[in-house]
Design a protein that fits this description.
Elements (H helix, E strand, L loop, with lengths): L4 E2 L4 H4 L5 E7 L3 E7 L6 E8 L3 H14 L2 E8 L9 H16 L4 E5 L3 H11 L5 H27 L4
Parallel strand pairs: 1-6, 2-5, 5-6
Antiparallel strand pairs: 2-3, 3-4
Helix pairs in contact: 4-5
Subcellular location: Cytoplasm
InterPro entries: RNaseH-like_sf, YqgF, YqgF/RNaseH-like_dom, YqgF/RNaseH-like_dom_sf
Keywords: Cytoplasm, Hydrolase, Nuclease, Ribosome biogenesis
Length: about 160
Amino acid sequence: MFVPVFDLKDLPAACPPNTSWIGLDLGEKTIGVAVSDASRMIASPLQLIRKTKFTQEAEALFKLMDGRNVSALVIGLPLNMDGTEGPRAQSCRAFARNLERIRPVNIAFQDERLSTAGVERFLIEELDLNRKRRAEVVDRTAASWILQGALDQLRISSGQI
């Protein structure tokens, strides 16, 4: 069964109330995972999924979704600075299509330009983390940044902020 990828503004209507969303930062070696609370106000870093085989990654993700009453995924879309899509963005779209082939999933993409750079700057300037420690937390923190950006954008557009 094919489930369409939603425009972010249409995602809430496709999801039952009081369900969480998961945010993903798809890296080359890991997938950063963040989760929202059931009211979809706050995103928190959750964990990393090490990239191995797609089916194992999908299985780990679906297990997280099932255990946390998750109704949607917000996947970071790494657009070029001019807004065009390059190979990394196409890879993210392919990841979403492959997930949908296994199981119906509500998915929306969120522009993630500069999310990793912003997270790196925060981890250095505000938390004073060294390079090794930053490497351990940057992807899941970037996933949280992506998901929080989507949640905030929806609240702003609905007049809640």
